[in-house]
Give the backbone structure.
Amino acid sequence: MTATIQATRPGMTAATREITGPAGAPLVGNTLQLQRDPLGFIMRVATEYGDVARYRLGNVTFNQVSHPDGAQRILQENHHNYIKGDMFDILRQLAGDGLFTSEGDLWLRQRRLMQPAFHRRRIAGFGEVMTGRTLDMLARWDQRADTSQPLNVAEEMTALTMAIISETMFGAHLDTDTHAVSEAITLLLADINFRFQLPFYPSLRWPTLRNRRTLAAMRTVDDVVLGIIEQRRRSGEQRDDLLGMLMEMVDEETGQGMSDKQLRDEVVTIFVAGHETTAVALTWAFYLLSQNLGAEAELHAELDQVLAGRAPGAADVPNLRYTRMIIDETLRLYPPAWITNREAVAEDVVCGYRIPAGAVVAVSPYVIHHSAAWWPDPDRFDPQRFDPDTPHDRPRFAYMPFGGGPHQCIGNTFALMEAMLLLATVAQRYRLLLAPGAVVKPQPQTTLRPAGGLPMLLQSRTESQG
């Protein structure tokens, strides 16, 4: 059911368009449609109902904004009007009031505090760690390269990026079972997605089987995070890394340092978000290269020419142009953060549609990245779209894998350099071939992972060239 929307404040006109959307079932709305095929559903909503469309999950109505200009309005131009709101309470159960979930003055204070840790010059110093941990992984791969046993590349990338974020941001070497931590994070991300789709599900205070599993996974992650913090405190070491900055922070008004809870919340946020995006992006990059041999050959040619057999470093990043184009195109096709929600504080007009105060808006990079209006043949893998020498007239927010505006991912530069160095280091030595019979499809949960992982076979480049 729809109703014509009338102008209610200056700046609106009677021509403001009505928001329509797919019919839903009683009580659950469009929940079942979304659960059956999340990506297909939101793409159909955009295609059939326009730049701003409406669907309902239970008692929550979402206004999906699918135009780059609308995304820019919400995330940048009028970002003060769009808060994270109650919808982020689901995430707050995991991350507390960390940078990703906090609002207002707390968010601004934490963002300013953390920003120096992600400065380009500081990040360049992490290149040696990124390449070094990747070489350690490859040394382990060398032991099984001649076998026909598939390697789960998704798990390998997760363990690798988890080790890198721990060492670079927190000065810690994980001495725990990374597989168990990865499984816990996977369960938590799936649970967050479940609760977004079923916002009426009982809170964690209720001892359901799902809630007990979620709480156990949270304890697994907390054990790692709190162990990192305790290890630093026991050592008494003062280090110029993100953890050191957080531990030395003093509130200008109260003169007090960060509470244990706030410290935990920030470390959890950076620990989880700091490895997940890169791990997911690299997993999809290896899959796409296995399906596009011409792009793979061009990547190998660039690596051979630029690196001439040596390991890559931060200084090589500007010269690895095609490597960057592969990462950019991968993030277009499979943006790890595939959707985000905001809540309107006051009325607004977005792409000619009235957004009421209190409305929930959903912005999906996946939808915008797959729009033929901005990306011809949008489902095709084509790194040349991002050739820096080829001009384009796309809107700024037609490509937004890290979000946009003041809340753009603080670690985007870190993630891009990490993805490039890890891809270059692996691709120098190995081709990754999709395991026979493997079926790969995206699983849109909190991040856009391949369902069930990514089984691949290792083939040394020396062997393939011979």
User: Anything to note?
Assistant: The two ends are 65 Å apart (CA to CA). Confidence is low (pLDDT under 50) at residues 1-14. The chain has one domain: 31-465.
